[in-house]
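Hey team,

Filing this mostly as a record. A colleague (T.K.) asked me to run one chain through the structure pipeline before their review meeting, and I want the input and output archived in the tracker in case anyone asks later how it was produced. No errors, nothing strange. Just documentation.

Input sequence:
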Amino acid sequence: MKNIAVFCGSGDGYNEIYRETAYQLGKTLAEQGIATIYGGAKVGMMGALADGVLQHGGKIVGVIPYFLKTKEVVHEGLTELISVETMHDRKLKMSELSDGIITMPGGWGTMEEMFEMLTWGQLGLHVKPVGLLNVNGYYDALKALSDNMVQEGFLDEYVNSTLLISESIEDLLEQMAAYAPPPAPKWITQQTT
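Output structure:
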């Protein structure tokens, strides 16, 4: 993987571990020569991620909708900043530029971004690994919900297994590097008449 998109909160959360881990992820990606694609802001975890990349000589590309340039103050000094029209365009561009996706703690927007990436993968629109960095057990309830979706018949186990989860940056990156996507379901590959 040469480029990884990272979705995370524009806030810091109440526990310093979230911001520290975002910084560490940026540092780790820079040290491994992996470019970071992210939302372009200098606030919250997004800013910590960018600082981790930049302070360790890495490459980071920000993608931000025009209307957020004033609300999510743009990080200065990025390798590249790409402005787009809409939030959907932002996700699409980040996906196009990346070889894999990591989601860190965040709110509704972060969840929406991750679920769209998972859905696109389920539909065969990409074959990229999607990883969840489960900092401080933040996503334990989401993992339980996903397992319940399988138990209740709304999500196939092989689809559930495409979401790679770890509390460790290094372990998550190893899982992503070894990722082999499952074959697309028959209903996706069938031609309609």
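Quick notes for T.K.: Strands lie at 3-7, 35-38, 60-65, 80-84, 100-103, 130-133, 163-166. Residues 36 and 60 are 5 Å apart (CA to CA).
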